[in-house]
């Protein structure tokens, strides 16, 4: 699973997890996705290019393809035609293609995990750098007018008694269509998009506050007649005052650990059960904070932390990098 909750009620999202045809450095057996190729005998230290391929059946229409994570550079082909790329192994990315015919299609992904002073992460790192499609791959057929981006944000009043929410959904076309926003299944706003922008502002009185050990979460969604996107949101205030950390206007002491998303049997493709085991250990230690050293962790893991009331410090994979490479054209 990619998240702990359905990210849409209208998209028929299908998984491409399972065995893919695989070739790397003379190794030509099938490879399970999601996984890291370095846990395979003979590929432990391999850094280079690998090719994944899988045939799937598509109902036709606008093809949406989502990768949870590919280490570290990915070039994607559909039926032998170049589709797109992504550079940066620890973040998710999506691709879309219009008017794809129904039937069987072949997806090819070339993956490269080589690092140098102009890659993220760079060749100077203090953790094992894996390769592979190590998080879930999904696809769906989208309607002609669908959401391509969204942002849900909020502010809390000083006394934490009022949450002011701002919802923005971006449609694939500059269309003016009716839309609605739902909070915990209740309609809280309705309007009409303006040139593809769905914008809503509304307030919630006396919200249940997210806190340490208290994973209070709300389900928030924006939808049109044909498409929707769903997120979970926790209301909390966090700030620094007089060198102290205040959570919901209350001083807290951060008791934390550094955690790498890594396992000797799975690499970065850590199963959900082992993620939960890590959380159990953290809680048994009496900790309330995790530093995700040194890269964005799985969204699934962060969902687990949200539910169990654990603070998370997210980082970018630029550990120990000097100023000089940061100002090159490749990284700026």
Give a quick summary of the entry:
The chain has 332 residues and is mainly β. It has helices at residues 272-284, 299-308, 323-326, and strands spanning 14-15, 18-23, 31-33, 49-58, 61-67, 70-71, 73-78, 81-87, 93-100, 103-112, 132-133, 137-142, 147-156, 162-171, 178-183, 186-192, 197-205, 218-223, 228-233, 238-241, 244-247, 250-252, 256-259, 289-292, 311-314.
Instruction: Give me the secondary-structure category.
Output: mainly beta
Total number of beta strands? 25
Outline the biggest β-sheet: 6 strands, antiparallel
Low-confidence stretches: none
Q: Per CATH, which architecture of the largest domain?
A: Sandwich
Query: What form results from the Cα inertia axes?
Result: globular
Task: Please name the CATH topology of the largest domain.
Answer: Jelly Rolls
Strand content: 35-45%
- Output the CATH homologous superfamily of the largest domain: Galactose-binding domain-like
Order of helices and strands: EEEEEEEEEEEEEEEEEEEEEEEHEHEH
Count of discrete structural domains: 3
Mean of residue pLDDT?
A: 95
Major sheet strand order:
3-2-4-10-7-8
